[in-house]
Amino acid sequence: MATNRTFTMIKPDAVENGHIGGILNMITEGGFKIVSLKLTQLTIADAQAFYAVHAARPFFGELVEFMTRGPIVAAILEKENAVEEFRTLIGATNPADAADGTIRKKYATSIGENAVHGSDSDENAAVESAFHFAGREQF
């Protein structure tokens, strides 16, 4: 059963390039309600823990370095069928393959610097949301 919440991060590349407002606008225009939001920066330990599923992959070190190089915006979003709807809104990981009108088509510059993260399942949305937001920060 699909839930009504998902998790996203606006990644360091998009924050550095001044795209926070544009991305948040696309999210709200896409019908999502922002129920939690913060500007924060991941420590190396945070990034290693968050991306632990990729620890054995050859790109893990680069991913941790990228995700800790500057601030991110973390958010919990609400909408019917949130995970699937948000994955559609963000587009393919490779911006060259992303559909027109998606966040990554508009703001990502490469597969590695792809502007946003979106949870890939309802279970991961709950885990990722709890990783970034205490219960009292979730509305």
Descriptive notes:
- With 139 residues, this protein is α+β, with helices and mostly antiparallel strands.
- It contains 7 helices and 4 strands, in the order βααβααβααβα.
- The chain has a 4-stranded antiparallel β-sheet.
Briefly, what is this?
This protein is an alpha+beta fold and 139 residues long. Helices cover 40% and strands 17% of the residues. It has a four-stranded antiparallel β-sheet with strand order 2-3-1-4.
Largest sheet, if any?
A: 4 strands, antiparallel
Separation, N- and C-terminal Cα atoms = 21 Å
Output the strand order for the largest sheet.
Answer: 2-3-1-4
Radius of gyration: 14 Å
The overall average pLDDT, rounded, is: 96
Structural class: alpha+beta
- The level of helicity is 25-40%
- Tally of helical segments: 7
The SSE order reads: EHHEHHEHHEH
Taken as a percent bin, the fraction of beta residues is: 15-25%
Unreliable stretches:
none
Number of strands: 4
Shape: globular
Ordered list of secondary-structure elements with their pairings:
Blueprint: E1 5-10, H1 12-16, H2 20-29, E2 33-40, H3 44-50, H4 60-67, E3 72-78, H5 82-90, H6 103-107, E4 116-118, H7 122-132
Antiparallel strand pairs: 1-3, 1-4, 2-3
